[in-house]
Amino acid sequence: MNRSVIIATIIAVGVTGWIVSGQFKEPEIDVADAATTKTNPIVSEIAAALQPKKTEPTLVDVQIYNAEPREQKVVVRGMTEAVRTVTIKAETPGRVVSTYVERGQRVKKGDVLVKFAVKARRAQLAEAEALVRQRQIEYKAAKALSKKGFSAKTTLAGTKALLDSALAQSEAVRILLDDLIIRAPFDGIVEERQAEIGDFIKDGNAVITIVDENPFLVTGQISEVYVNKIKVGDKGTAKLVTGETVKGTVRFIGKKSDPATRTFRVELLVQNDDYKLRAGVTAETTFTTDKVMAHFISPAILTLNDNGVLGVRSVDDTDVVHFHPVKVITDSSEGAWITGLPPQTRLIKVGQEFVRAGEKVNPQNRTAGVQ
Question: What single DSSP character describes residue 354?
């Protein structure tokens, strides 16, 4: 190998080692050099510059926060529903001869809505009633003969059976006649009338649909995380997209979740005395749960640790920083209520992003109390 190349390589390695040793090793000053340092100002300045500097604790702004009892709120989005919506169907076939209500008309329980043609059924009733009278005469005669001993007990029992059968047939015809008159099963409003005059309605076909307007339901699907935080009988407030705000009581909480969303049906029963509520309107329902101890803070105090966990940083009595994971239960433009802190905590309001847990700081205290 060329001699000049070898020499150049050795010089390069030496220079590199000298630079590295200067970066990663602090200069050592022996006893002999100490005297020279004291007498030589230039050497003294260089030695002072090479010595590690002491850093002061970070200045942070802190304030004492006290916990207060706070009702935890659970918000569920859903819609309004009628308590009952019933489509009345024909129980016997017939032709419509009269209609007494129109869509949107309110009705009372028992009001006549639609009538079917009677036709031969009245004659059937007359025939059944005549047969009843005949059987009554036969039974009366058999009973008299039986008392005198001129008729067997079996004959009396047979005439009694025939009378009972005639009475049953007569009652069946009366029921058929009554089925020709469609009546309102409860107070409500006519949502749809499927039958028109002249229509022939088969048994089982829809005749009229009635909606029960009062009370009303506000329904929704509550997350599995919060389902155990409310119970039947709890109060709730629903805000409708149409502008109304209604209050009510929890009537039902489902026991089986929706397989797709892992949510449970919840129903809020509300009064609708003025009949303003309509079914199918989007609503946001807020349920009030048991009170918990919480702190009210500015959202600016919230921060994330190195693992991305939401929380706040506090300072203990020895001015050492601690990180507390917290849970936001409610928030607004004014601030946030959080849980997960000791009853009284000295939180860092300014500078929390520049310190870490375990670090000693220089706290500047503000007036104690809850904001």
Answer: G
* Chain segment 345-355, per-residue pLDDT in tens: 999 999 888 89
- The tokens describing 293, both together, are 């101890």
53-102 pLDDT per residue, tens: 557 888 899 999 999 988 778 899 999 999 999 999 998 888 999 999 99
**CATH number, domain 59-71+293-365, options 3.40.50.150, 2.40.420.20, 3.20.20.70, 1.10.1660.10:** 2.40.420.20
Q: Which helix (H) or strand (E) holds 78?
A: strand 68-89
DSSP single-letter state for residue 244: -
Place of tokens 């590690």: 52
How far is the C-alpha of 60 from the C-alpha of 315, rounded, in Å?
10
Q: What integer pLDDT is reported at residue 36 of this predicted model? A: 47
CB 220 within 8 A of CB 283: yes
DSSP calls for 200-224: EE-TT-EEEEEEEEEEEEEEEEEET
